[in-house]
Task: structure prediction
Amino acid sequence: MNNVGLEVGTFLGKGVTQGVRGTRDFYPEDMRLRNWLFDNFNDAALLHGFDEYDAPVLEHEELYTRKQGEEITQQLYNFEDKGERKVALRPEMTPSLARMVMARAGALPLPIKWFSIPQCWRYERTQRGRGREHYQWNVDIWGSSELSADAELISILVTFFEGVGLTSDDIVIRISSRKVLEEVLGSLGVEGNIFAKTCIIVDKMDKLSADIISQQLAGLGHASNTIETIQKVLGIKDMADLSNALDVESLAVSELKILFDSIDSYGISEWVEFDASVVRGLAYYTGSVFEAHDREGKFRAICGGGRYDKLLSTLGGKDLPATGFGFGDMVIMELLAEKKLLPELISSTEDIVIPLSPELRNAAVMVATELRDRGRTVDLVLEDKKMKWAFKHAERIGADRLVMVMPEEWKSKKVRIKDLHTGEESDVSIEEL
Result:
């Protein structure tokens, strides 16, 4: 067996033990943490009355390339299948959700409140908190134009953060509206495709220097006074200052006030703040936008989302109001690790059944089967092992009991059980197991 492994390794090359660049292996201890994280995702969504859905990881390439003004079009894992169809591994879930909603247009009861935890793929430079494959918790509401739907999403985020032990001292959810930038640029005569490209640039304001942002905006043809106005308004952190900067009848200001009032009704205002620089780079956002960050600013955005009421028309359908967020699994795990909030999870095995002689292997199988039929989780020792090994194995996986099938006891159809917490031992018949 070992020789075969060596031959395969030699044939595949030196990198055979490493996964493809930007991907991750999940060993059992990693899977336990991943499942714990996903359980917390699920719990937060289910508590708010959302239903889970899923879609294929393989999608039509056109689903992404039809959306213009996004970097994502350059980040696809795309190819032609054997039927010469252009397909891609999904880089995000929202287009798949849009396709599913369009497929049953008029038949789905509204509002739709759905969530999913899909695996997504993007071909981009790997960096801390960002790989080429990741899992992303997606939560969306379709069919409601009320800003209370956006506030409900914020509530779900806070519920999750509290569920994993984080507080408002650790996390801030920064909120703004794409309409802020729309109104500013509209007053300056900037609109259309240039607006979408401008959003991509200003979305990087927290990552790039003001000079570089200015250079990139100038590259789009913006005049110096336009660039100055954009940076001034997007630097606003207070709603009162925003009201003074925009028109007295600003729709952006009135909607944001309604949203913050709704969030206050949830009793979670300490988690949120206004930040005009939040615009989100994706072209399909139309209204409120938000991002969650760690207060210390050590990590990239934990999650982000907003309202996207006009997505379906870009895909050939009839528009439907929608709002949602995407929440990756990588940054949050780094943050929880730094905060020492990751639990120490062990195997869920309750019993270890071990035969103490080769002749009792079948008897051990019978005992393990009986325990499993009664709902116990059982690790059956399949090889000849010493008791010293069994105790060490039990300690490693955190088992509750060691069930020993022993020659003399088995003659009386009994097994010896050792409680690994108290150290007590007793001989028990199969009926009493």
In short: The domain at 351-432 is CATH 3.40.50.800 (Rossmann fold). The chain has two domains: 25-338, 351-432.
